Structure to design on (426 residues):
């Protein structure tokens, strides 16, 4: 049985839940509360498992894997069907480049520890912090919108979602939480609407998790 | 012939130069100046090639690939020998998780556009900006130091560098530019010293590039 250290609102953990569901893999969740007790990801017990001190962490027997995209690659290598990535190297690269744009150039700028640093250490006001948040979402999603239009199909695997959608849907979930205007991204909204109708995505949604508040 | 859109000091482009050299692949560079003309990565010509507006971009015939880690994966898939990643899925995952920690959780917080936003839009003073920079380097490299100690060999491919070192050495180059104290990371410094003695890394160094200033 796979074990996922997760938090309902962690969008990196949400990516992995989607991927596990798309592959039909059973897993148990261990909740790690990112706010309570000053952030349980900083506890000695958790750091012994994952020195990066971030979520998610997947445990598969003796193997412990940090970083959501490393987990997605591992799942695709160890449980190849159904695939999360296309088989053609050039297309795999397009899909990874879009997923990495979300995972490197949107999400890390807006995650909890960075927002805490902005307000706590730098004294950035709430409104300026929200503008920061929406700025990186806007710059990033505009590029993702362009990238989606260059893919040969509606979804990253033609008619099927995978690696890219596992990153995109959590990012859009976050953007909506912060009231970002997404009307400039019709292609993204079409992909999100389709994915949100699928059980793999529905069951991975934050509000459906055992630790949801 | 492969073409790399690059800037001498872009550490994401530096990663790809290392990977190309490790594989012994010939390539030509097209310089994109990240500061001149308000940043040439924002020009219409470059955005037509790469809507993400970031470096690097690899062009292989009709295939255009953004995002350094997507390029590394593509190179490993299309030119498998010498490999950048170990063959065992669990070990591949460890290596990717460390590389992604650098690529997602250190570098994007400290790259040019973010530092420009901090000083330009948020009015963060120079000293506080440097503290921000060093904070994310410290938090990130401390985790990478722990992760390196869990690898079975001295380097990510035993006695040979690859994917991980292609990310680590540029990150350390950046950290030194900003006078980060790296003495707490002896394992990282050992890896860096070894890699810096190899031609693949020497020839990829920023100061060796045709557009170096």
């Amino acid at each position: 049985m796979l074990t996922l250290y997760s938090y309902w609102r962690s969008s990196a953990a949400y990516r992995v839940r989607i991927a596990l569901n798309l592959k039909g893999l059973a897993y148990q969740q261990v909740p790690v509360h990112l706010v309570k007790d000053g952030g349980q990801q900083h506890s000695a017990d958790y750091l012994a498992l994952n020195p990066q001190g971030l979520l998610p962490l997947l445990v598969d027997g003796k193997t412990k894997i940090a970083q959501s995209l490393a987990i997605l690659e591992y799942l695709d290598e160890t449980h190849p069907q159904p695939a999360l990535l296309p088989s053609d190297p050039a297309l795999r690269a397009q899909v990874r480049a879009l997923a990495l744009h979300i995972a490197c150039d949107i999400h890390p700028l807006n995650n909890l520890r960075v927002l805490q640093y902005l307000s706590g250490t730098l004294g950035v006001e709430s409104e300026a912090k929200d503008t920061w948040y929406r700025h990186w979402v806007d710059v990033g999603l505009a590029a993702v919108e362009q990238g989606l239009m260059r893919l040969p199909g509606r979804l990253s695997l033609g008619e099927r979602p995978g690696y890219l959608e596992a990153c995109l849907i959590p990012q859009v979930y976050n953007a909506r939480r912060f009231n970002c205007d997404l009307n400039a991204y019709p292609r993204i909204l079409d992909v999100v609407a389709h994915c949100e109708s699928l059980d793999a995505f529905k069951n991975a949604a934050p509000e459906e998790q055992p630790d949801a508040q």
User: Anything to note?
Assistant: Chain A has a mean pLDDT of 97. The interface with chain B takes residues 51-54, 60, 63, 65-67, 69-71, 73-74, 77-78, 89-90, 92-94, 96-97, 100-101, 103-105, 107-109, 114, 117-118, 121-122, 124, 128, 131-132, 135, 142-143, 146-147 of chain A (CB under 8 Å). The first strand of chain A starts at residue 2 and ends at 6. Chain A has two domains: 2-82, 89-200.
